[in-house]
Design goal:
The structure holds two protein chains of two kinds. By secondary structure, chain A is α+β, with helices and mostly antiparallel strands. Chain A contains eight helices and twelve strands. In chain B, 67% of the residues lie in helices and 0% in strands. Chain B has helices at residues 19-23, 28-57, 67-103, 111-133, 147-150, 155-182, 195-227, 240-274, 281-295, 310-321, 324-338, 347-370, 372-378, 382-412, 418-445, 459-489. Chain B contains 16 helices and no strands. By secondary structure, chain B is mainly alpha-helical. Chain B has one domain: Cytochrome c oxidase-like, subunit I domain (Cytochrome C Oxidase, Chain A, Up-down Bundle). Chains A and B meet through helix 2, helix 3, strand 7, strand 9 and helix 5 of A and helix 3, helix 8, helix 9, helix 10 and helix 11 of B. The complex binds copper (II) ion (2 copies).
């Protein structure tokens, strides 16, 4: 049944993203109506203009006609657009209601946006970062808030978007009809790594979803976002662009680009997180009183799982950076950079 | 008109000499030119930032600047283009020059205030540019809270700069309203007022009423930043979305501060080069005021996905639809004016035709964005970027450059080179569509705005767009070269090379210091009386 379902929803066609839900299908109808209406008016106006420009171009002995207005015509081109616009408004409103009102049986998942990471909290206490795992064909309602500044949660394939605002809950819903990966963008400017604040929705077939729920390995089948490995790709090409630089300098650029410098200084002064200066090879006291020596493995863990060992005197606010976000080459460059600050 | 023999060689350019005489001048024509020079300077500066932005986005994975630099560049590009270029472009430069002359007046009502406005503008610009050297600003030109409260650098200076520049806009608006009300020549009744002046009048009303709201908003933002009072920052009990309401309460009407004057310029150019009266004079004049009115009640269309209530979205979407009606009336009337005309394709007319093409696309895509459901998907993507560049650059800048060519003979007494002007126009129109049309497609596909790095799937559109930006550069450089060279050594233009009927053309070129010499011109017919010998 699911494969039948998937067939009904087209591929990305004509410059529109893939139709991932019923709402997307309805949305596309309205979009194409507006598109063809615009083509009509464009041809009318610009075609008319070009036609007049050619036919009435200056010529020896051409007499112009003294016309100042024509009330019927003016009434016509005021009233017809008004009617059309009101119809467009009404259609837009009806699609909008479908877009924003989740069915009452929707499954709720909580979303937290923070600079520059999306995290997802499930009812059973499970959490995911940068990856929203949902079952195929079930309505999903996201209840969202932000930890710092305004972000916006946008899934082109489902034609939905909603700002994620600190101090308040907003929500967005969708019913995925196509299994696979769907791109998520942050679409409200939120600082340095705004363009890195990406995530994907993984829509799983029921069996796979159960596997995921049980914490077992699972498979994502179905569509792939052309850019599913985009972060890795973008970063590796950024890395290539930097490849001529010595490793520590690459690291210096990376901590800038990834937004680490928002929380970490290099001059020894503590910001939101500890300074990188002089930590390598030194002992760091952790929250639970134990001590660790800062080495490659510790740094790597601090970046991938910051909450595993929290430095004393700081809050556990550092977002985790998964392998997708910082690949091995980049990790090496960052470690080399921190090392070089001794 | 009677001129004394000695008045002949005497014009506003040589009436007084030296830099000091320019800096202290109260002559509206000189002030207009000083604005023009400043606006063009900032246009090129903002343009350079745009070119770097485009280069950075040309191929995904090949950035030319780092993320923080990119964010500053996009902030500066937007802030400079909006506050220092497009808002003052037509009213303060072209408007200043031609408004009193179109009225048959010797100057604006408050000449000293006019000079003060210019210096206030310069002061605002200086503050904003100082910030460039003091850490810069990375908030985007919209300064959304709470990000703008938390980020460091020179953001306060930029906000302060915009705040100061706003007063220049308010004072110019005030000056224009009083001038139009009080200084019309004998016989220049309201029914004979040129459409550019109707447009500038409507613009001035918006400037005077809306800009103070921006001023208050920016002051609150500075307060929030410095004293942490808790108006916008939720961490302090404030509401970040409130800022967006305040901001757009100004910035939506500001969109019409930017476009109405350009529409005025187009309404002057088309009849002159079609040798026909403007079609639907009253409707166009009324439409300017209709647009100005609606301007104030549609700001919420920028907040459809911000967490605003459903009811508010309903109302703002409905009201926004009404913007399209008077706008459509204008466009139809311009095309109607060409019907059975005798059309000349001098550069001003080319820009007017370019305006209609680009503005039509900008306007139609505006209807997409006004439609609630459609906006949810398209907002904050490149579709919006493309839409407002079609309106603001395709509209306002086309009107501005068209106007520059149109009044060039009046301002300098010389003719520009028509061939160079035509090639510049071709380069601009190709470059413009190549730069911005692909952005509609990328945006519909979901490409978000204000991204330092884009996904590889959008590479085709991004590359096309970047190549387009080079044609734009080439075109604008040709315009600049043509203007500068022709002002120095162009052939003499005569007083009225276009045989236009508005009053400014009845004066000498370049006009004398007091515009019309000792006599005050009298108006006996409306400015579009193209019949008989006037054709
Ligand atoms: Cu963001
Ligand atoms: Cu608006």
């Amino acid at each position: 049944m699911n494969s039948v379902m998937s067939k009904a929803y087209g591929k990305a066609a004509w410059g529109l993203p893939l139709q991932g839900s019923d709402v997307a299908v309805t949305w596309d109808h309205l979009y194409w109506f507006l598109f063809w209406l615009s083509v009509f008016f464009f041809i009318l106006v610009v075609g008319g203009m070009i036609y007049f420009a050619i036919v009435y171009r200056k010529k020896e002995g051409r007499k112009t006609k003294y016309i100042v207005d024509h009330h019927a015509l003016e009434a016509f081109w005021t009233i017809i657009p008004t009617i059309l616009l009101m119809a467009i408004f009404g259609w837009g409103w009806s699609v909008y209601k479908k877009q924003i009102h989740a069915p009452t049986d929707a499954m709720e998942i909580r979303v937290i946006g923070k600079q520059w990471l999306w995290t997802f909290q499930y009812d059973d206490g499970r959490t995911e970062a940068s990856k929203l795992v949902v079952p195929l064909g079930k309505p999903i309602k996201l209840i969202m808030t932000s930890q710092d500044v305004i972000h916006s949660f946008f899934i082109p394939n489902f034609r939905v978007k909603q700002d994620v605002v600190p101090g308040m809950y907003t929500s967005v819903w969708f019913e995925p009809k196509v299994a696979g990966e769907h791109q998520v963008f942050c679409t409200e400017y939120c600082g340095t790594s705004h363009s890195g604040m990406l995530a994907k929705v993984e829509v799983l077939e029921p069996e796979q979803y159960e596997l995921w729920k049980a914490g077992k390995p699972y498979q994502v089948t179905g569509v792939k976002t052309p850019s599913s490995d985009l972060l890795a790709a973008a970063q590796s090409s950024a890395r290539l662009a930097n490849a001529k630089l010595p490793l520590p300098d690459q690291g210096a650029k990376l901590v800038q680009a990834k937004g680490c410098t928002a929380c970490h200084s290099i001059d020894g002064s503590a910001k939101i997180g500890p300074s990188y200066k002089g930590i390598f090879g030194h002992e760091q006291e952790l929250l639970d009183g134990t001590k660790v020596t800062v080495d490659e493995n510790y740094i790597r863990e601090s970046i991938q799982k910051p909450q595993a060992k929290v430095v004393k005197g700081f809050n556990p606010v550092m977002p985790p950076y998964t392998k997708d976000m910082i690949g091995e080459e980049d990790m090496n460059a960052i470690v080399a950079y921190i090392k070089s600050l001794n | 008109m009677a001129h004394t023999a000695e008045a002949h060689g005497d014009n506003y350019l040589n009436h007084e000499k030296g830099l000091w005489s320019w800096m202290t001048t109260v002559d509206h024509k000189r002030i207009g030119l000083m604005y023009l020079a400043s606006v063009c300077f900032f246009f090129f500066l903002g343009g350079i930032f745009a070119l770097i932005i485009r280069l950075n986005l040309m191929h995904s994975g090949h950035p030319v600047v780092d993320a923080n630099t990119y964010n500053k560049l996009m902030t500066y590009h937007g802030a400079i283009m909006v506050f220092l270029v497009i808002i003052p472009a037509i009213p303060a430069s072209i408007g200043n020059f031609v408004l009193p002359m179109m009225l048959g007046a010797k100057d604006v009502a408050f000449p000293k205030l006019n000079l003060a406005s210019y210096y206030i503008y310069l002061a605002g610009a200086t503050f904003a540019c100082l910030a460039l050297f003091l850490g810069g600003a990375d908030t985007g030109w919209t300064f959304y809270t709470p990000y703008s409260i938390r980020t460091g650098g020179g953001v306060i200076l930029v906000i302060f700069g915009a705040f100061v520049a706003g007063f220049s806009s308010i004072l110019t608006g005030l000056n224009f309203i009083v001038t139009i009300q009080k200084l019309r020549a004998p016989g220049l009744t309201w029914n004979r007022l040129p459409l550019l002046l109707w447009a500038l009048y409507a613009t001035s009303i918006i400037q005077v009423l809306a800009t103070p709201v921006l001023a208050i908003t920016l002051v609150l933002l500075i307060f929030e930043h410095v004293f942490k009072v808790g108006i916008f920052d939720p961490a302090l009990g404030g509401d970040p979305v409130l800022f967006q309401h305040f901001f757009w309460f100004y910035s939506h009407p500001a969109v019409y501060i930017m476009i109405l004057p350009a529409m005025g310029v187009i309404s002057e150019i088309i009849p002159v080069f079609s040798r026909k009266p403007i079609f639907g004079y009253r409707a166009i004049a009324l439409a300017s005021f209709g647009i100005a009115l609606v301007a104030f009640i549609v700001w919420g269309h920028h907040l459809f996905v911000s967490g605003q209530s459903e009811l508010a979205n309903f109302v703002f979407s409905l009201l926004t639809m009404f913007v399209a009606i008077p706008t459509g009336v204008k466009v139809f009337s311009w095309v109607g004016t060409m019907y059975k005309g005798s059309i000349r394709f001098n550069a001003p007319m080319l820009y007017a035709l370019g305006f209609i093409e680009l503005f039509t696309i900008g306007g139609l895509t505006g209807v997409f964005l006004a439609t609630l459901a459609i906006d949810v998907h398209l907002t904050d993507t490149y579709f919006v970027i493309a839409h407002f560049h079609y309106v603001m650059v395709g509209g306002t800048i086309m009107g501005f450059v068209g106007g520059m060519h149109y009044w060039f003979p009046k301002v300098t007494g010389k003719l520009y080179n028509e061939t160079v002007a035509m090639w510049a126009f071709i380069s601009i129109i190709i470059g413009f569509n190549l730069t911005f049309f692909p952005q509609f497609i990328a945006g519909t596909e979901g490409m978000p705005r204000r991204y330092w790095s884009q996904l590889p799937e959008f590479d085709l559109w991004n590359t096309l767009s970047t190549v387009g930006s080079w044609f734009l550069l080439l075109g604008f450089l040709m315009v600049a070269w043509n203007m500068i060279k022709s002002a120095k050594s162009g052939p003499a233009a005569g007083d009225n090379p276009w045989r236009a009927l508005t009053l400014e053309w009845q004066s000498k070129s370049p006009p004398p210091h007091d515009n019309f010499g000792p006599t005050t011109p009298t108006v006996t017919h409306w400015p579009y009386e193209y019949k008989g010998a006037n054709v």
